[in-house]
């Protein structure tokens, strides 16, 4: 089976709002797929449905061949939320080693994850004393420590400087080259160019599902920022017509 994620006719309501309204997409294994869209368009909600923590009204989400949220998936998925989920009163290394121990892994796996996110120099520091960007990377280290088959990352590079962003993206690409599937949300278009595929969401609907080159070709421009603006305007015109 080549797809990592298959979403069919997904409807999700949060509060009074229908956030995803009959949303469908397929995400191939071993790829980096970027999830893009305006703030509030439903990116986090879709990610929550994929990792199985979102109540859905109808539709199906199949992940690595199993229903999202089912027991066989627990050890196979890594999820980075926007709010860092690490213990403030432990050091970076202690956090990573704790998460490694949950998966029966040794300290070496934890140290490798800390290095991958560029935190080796800060490994002995309490998370409480880290900057926001460092804390977010500590959280990322814990999400990748088990080398999950599917990594779901909600804006992992927010607050990172350009050099670190570049290194993190190199790491995502290496994970995909080793067979992992990476689903990553972002607002940064130069990051979108580094994805194999892009899903553009607007108001809970999919308005593009293509390679970066395909998105640009469909919009008739050579710049992703402009391509997305064109596609959004085109969709608005279609809705108005
Ligand atoms: N707990 C909640 N209760 C009610 N509505 C919610 C809740 N969480 C999110 N929403 C609404 O669902 C919609 C989609 O939110 P979501 O967080 O999925 O968007 P997003 O695309 O990830 O946005 P951002 O880029 O700002 O993170 C928004 O209109 C938001 O207000």
Automatic annotation (TrEMBL):
<feature type="domain" description="ABC transporter">
    <location>
        <begin position="5"/>
        <end position="228"/>
    </location>
</feature>
<dbReference type="InterPro" id="IPR027417">
    <property type="entry name" value="P-loop_NTPase"/>
</dbReference>
<dbReference type="GO" id="GO:0005524">
    <property type="term" value="F:ATP binding"/>
</dbReference>
<dbReference type="Pfam" id="PF00005">
    <property type="entry name" value="ABC_tran"/>
</dbReference>
<protein>
    <submittedName>
        <fullName>ABC-2 type transport system ATP-binding protein</fullName>
    </submittedName>
</protein>
<dbReference type="InterPro" id="IPR003439">
    <property type="entry name" value="ABC_transporter-like_ATP-bd"/>
</dbReference>
<dbReference type="InterPro" id="IPR017871">
    <property type="entry name" value="ABC_transporter-like_CS"/>
</dbReference>
<dbReference type="InterPro" id="IPR003593">
    <property type="entry name" value="AAA+_ATPase"/>
</dbReference>
<keyword id="KW-0067">ATP-binding</keyword>
<dbReference type="GO" id="GO:0016887">
    <property type="term" value="F:ATP hydrolysis activity"/>
</dbReference>
<keyword id="KW-0547">Nucleotide-binding</keyword>
């Amino acid at each position: 089976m080549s797809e990592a994620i298959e979403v069919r006719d997904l409807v999700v309501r949060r509060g009074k709002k229908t956030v995803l309204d009959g949303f469908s997409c397929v995400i191939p294994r071993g790829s980096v797929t970027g999830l893009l869209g305006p703030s509030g368009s439903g990116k986090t909600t879709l990610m929550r449905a994929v990792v199985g923590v979102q109540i859905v009204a109808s539709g199906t989400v199949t992940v690595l061949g199993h229903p999202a949220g089912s027991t066989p998936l627990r050890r196979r998925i890594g999820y980075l939320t926007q709010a860092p989920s690490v213990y403030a009163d432990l050091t970076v290394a202690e956090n990573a080693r704790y998460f490694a121990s949950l998966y029966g892994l040794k300290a070496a796996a934890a140290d490798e994850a800390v290095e991958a996110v560029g935190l080796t120099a800060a490994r002995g520091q309490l998370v409480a004393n880290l900057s926001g960007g460092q804390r977010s990377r500590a959280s990322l280290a814990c999400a990748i420590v088990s080398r999950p088959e599917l990594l779901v990352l909600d804006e992992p590079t927010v607050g990172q400087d350009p050099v670190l962003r570049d290194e993190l993206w190199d790491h995502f690409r290496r994970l995909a080259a080793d067979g992992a599937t990476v689903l990553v949300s972002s607002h940064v278009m130069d990051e979108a160019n580094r994805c194999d595929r892009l899903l553009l969401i607007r108001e809970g609907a999919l308005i593009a599902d293509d390679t970066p080159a395909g998105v640009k070709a469909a919009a008739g421009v050579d710049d992703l920022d402009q391509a997305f603006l064109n596609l959004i305007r085109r969709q608005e015109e279609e809705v108005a017509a």
